[in-house]
């Protein structure tokens, strides 16, 4: 586009957009690869919440303890799987340096997970002298809350 053709010595005033398009395509590819890697933990189909209170900002921090239960037999802390018997020890080691008011464990359970499985996880957490347990629900997107 920017090359002079025909031997004339006139300047070409057209903008050469080819390098800009190349850079934009490389950036697009980089963002397409990196974006799925930004999600933390294990993907869980969590229940939708009807009335959405303010979200606890502690959930998204790296230092928070979030137990993911995608199905009845699997328990994860972050992306690492743990059996229910080893879950207590891991929580205890993660909470040993935290102040008593910051000792909160969040449970992110799937819709299809049995109630008893969640209760077993809560029981394991309580045996570690942790009284603050948060249950994570998905925010409802759009629309007004139901009228009662």
Characterization of this structure:
- This protein has 148 residues and is an alpha/beta fold.
- The chain has a domain at 65-135: Nucleotidyltransferase, domain 5, CATH 3.30.420.
- 28% of the residues lie in helices and 16% in strands.
- It has three helices and five strands.
- It has helices at residues 18-34, 84-95, 115-126, and strands at 65-71, 74-77, 80-82, 104-109, 132-135.
- The chain has a five-stranded mixed beta sheet with strand order 3-2-1-4-5, with helices on one face.
- Helix 3 links the parallel strand 4 (104-109) and strand 5.
- Helix 2 (84-95) packs across helix 3 (115-126).
- The relative contact order is 0.16.
- The model is unreliable at 141-148 (pLDDT under 50).
Radius of gyration: 25 Å
Task: Report the count of strand segments.
Answer: 5
What's the level 1 CATH class of the domain at 65-135?
Alpha Beta
Unreliable segments of 5+ consecutive residues? 141-148
Reading the helices and strands in chain order gives: HEEEHEHE
The strands making up the biggest β-sheet line up spatially as: 3-2-1-4-5
Q: What general form does the structure show?
A: elongated
The name of the CATH architecture of the domain at 65-135 is: 2-Layer Sandwich
